[in-house]
Amino acid sequence: MLHFVRHRGLRVLLALLVAAALLPACSSTDPKKITSPSQIYQLAKKALNDSDYSQAIKYYEALEARFPFSPEAKQGQLDLMYAYYKNHATESAIDQADQFIRENPIHPRVDYAYYIKGLTWFERNPNFIERWFRADLSLRPPIDARKSFQAFQTLVQQYPNSEYAADARQRMIFLRNRLANYEVYVANFYLSRGAYVGAINRAKFAIENYDGAPAIRQALAVMVDAYNKLGMQDLAHDTQRVLEQNYSASEVKAAEKKSWWKFW
């Protein structure tokens, strides 16, 4: 008798565990069975607010597929790119933002699409090898940084009064410094290899596109050195004068002494 009770109790416990496992799956509503776009949108919004991004994506995708011309679908497109971004679905977030910008160029929320696009590129993490070895990211091609900078730049230039413009400007400062660092690193590399014209061009690019970055001081020093090596004394003197007018004597001295292989 005792054996039977224990066996029966075990079956009950297993049944409860199975029911608990199935509960989350049953709690979500199948969007195919819903006939109202507003109902699907509300379910998607709730999942998004609950940080259940995978479920929110399913609802928003269903909303766009089944009711593409509804007002809810238009707002859902904006929410969907955010859900992709939070779910670390980088390519999907970028594609969704690009599609919204392409199809809705005068929409009052198109600034948000540029902002999400910039954020997505901005927050792309280094791979685990780089994190493990603490790689100096200023020495690797900043592809994601350029794309992020361009998205934020478009936002700030075309929508200066956007609620996202202030944050975009702050992120652009960080990205500007990152991009300038890389350009000057390459310019120093060219200088060390005797490719003086290439060094001048990369330094000029940094100065013209990332004005205000700390690395500009080093960019000017690279140009002075390269012009001297090419025998272009007038240009070397002019550039040296610009360097001395914009930086203190100690800063100029530090820039002139810094080697290409110690760019940090």
Summary keywords:
264 residues; mainly alpha; disordered C terminus
In short:
With 264 residues, the chain is mainly alpha-helical.
- The fraction of residues in strands falls at under 5%
Number of helices: 13
Overall pLDDT, averaged?
A: 83
Q: Spans with pLDDT under 50 lasting ≥5 residues?
A: 1-27, 127-135, 259-264
Helix percent reads over 70%
What separation lies between the terminal Cα atoms? 78 Å
Silhouette? elongated
Rg computed from alpha carbons, rounded to a whole number of angstroms: 28 Å
> What does the main sheet amount to?
none
Overall SS class:
mainly alpha
Secondary structure tally: strands = 0
Helix-strand pattern: HHHHHHHHHHHHH
Q: How does this structure look, described?
A:
This protein starts with a helix and ends in a 7-residue tail after the last helix. The model is unreliable at 1-27, 127-135 and 259-264 (pLDDT under 50). It is elongated and about 75 Å long. Helix 4 (71-86) runs antiparallel to helix 5 (90-103), helix 4 packs parallel to helix 6 and helix 10 (196-209) packs antiparallel against helix 11 (216-229). The longest helix has 28 residues, at 165-192. With 264 residues, the chain is mainly alpha-helical. Helix content is 75%, strand content 0%. The chain has 13 helices and no strands. The protein has helices at 2-27, 37-49, 53-66, 71-86, 90-103, 110-122, 128-133, 143-158, 165-192, 196-209, 216-229, 233-246, 249-257.
